[in-house]
Amino acid sequence: MGSIEAQPEGDQGGSGQNDQQQDVPKGESEWDDRVIGDGPEADGALKAPDKNSQEQGQAPAAQPGDVSADDGELHPHWDSQVSYGYQEREADKYEKKHIDAYDRTMLVNFDIKYPQLTGNLEHLDQINQTIRDTAFKTVTDSYDKPTDQWKQIVGSVLEEQDGDVELMSKVTYAITYNTDDFISISFSDDFEMGSSAGEYMQLRTVNINLKTGEVYQLDDVLTLNEDIAKSFTDNLVKFDGSDENGDGQISDDESLAIKILGRDEFQKGFLGQGDNANRFANCFFVDGNGKVNVGSSMWLGGDAGVWRGWWDVTLTDEQLAAAKKDSSFWGLIG
């Protein structure tokens, strides 16, 4: 599940140190960025890598019916009847070094898995750079070129913590939809902003026109509305909640994410409205059924507890008709 649930704020625990002691190299070290496997053969089968197969350099066949979303999980789907392929890559860096932006010696712990397309695509280099940049966004924002947001949040952690502090990003991915003209890729990033008390999970997606290299963002293709916000909220309650009352129904109070803000404020935040808008980061992807999904990464905390992670919902045809914008994207999917 794409979420981290925890006890109420103020008792989040964790120091950011590894449970198992490891020898950590000090100073500057090179990235170990390597190919760990080739994508599926072009035999018409629906195949895709999962986390275990990526580590082994294999690509098992996807099972029928497992390409739908709606559940806070990555669902890979690869149509190999295309003119290109891909390689699976993994880049990692593990060291302890002084980072000038934070004026502190920190543990750097990055493990990024990402695909790179192969073949005769006209804009291949540009497309692959876009894919890699999406996978490495946390590394860029926290380590390569720290943003003001990262400096502020990590700085607050440093003020409260004397021991080891950590920058971590563990990224996995799924190619969820592809044709000769278009590809949709989702990345799930488990990262830490200084310590385990600042651990988050984020969904990032990239949707690319393979003929032109154009990238489509959520705001390019959809206008989110109250109907989509309600569907997203209902779906999260249904799958992430628990029937604590034993009445066979899951209420908003039995879903921590909704309980923290309340349904009205939750839906406003999802739509980019109100005081909680900065707690949501929305994106979209296309699943293996050719359906458009809206995902949201959420950073929620309050008296009820902490919920940090991402969720998604598949939009109906009626919702798309009401929300879609004029974009070349719509001519790229079935």
Give a written overview of the molecule.
The protein folds into 2 domains: 24-217; 220-331, no CATH class. With 334 residues, it is an alpha+beta fold. The protein starts with a strand and ends in an 11-residue tail after the last helix. The chain has helices spanning 51-56, 124-135, 137-144, 148-160, 218-221, 226-240, 256-261, 263-270, 317-323, and strands spanning 3-6, 32-38, 85-99, 104-118, 166-178, 182-194, 199-209, 280-286, 292-302, 305-314. A hairpin with a 4-residue loop joins strand 3 and strand 4. It contains 9 helices and 10 strands. The strands form 2 sheets. The protein has a 6-stranded mixed β-sheet. Residues 7-22 and 41-65 have low confidence and may be disordered.
Brief account:
The protein has 334 residues and is of the alpha+beta class. The protein has helices spanning 51-56, 124-135, 137-144, 148-160, 218-221, 226-240, 256-261, 263-270, 317-323, and strands at 3-6, 32-38, 85-99, 104-118, 166-178, 182-194, 199-209, 280-286, 292-302, 305-314. The protein is built from nine helices and ten strands.
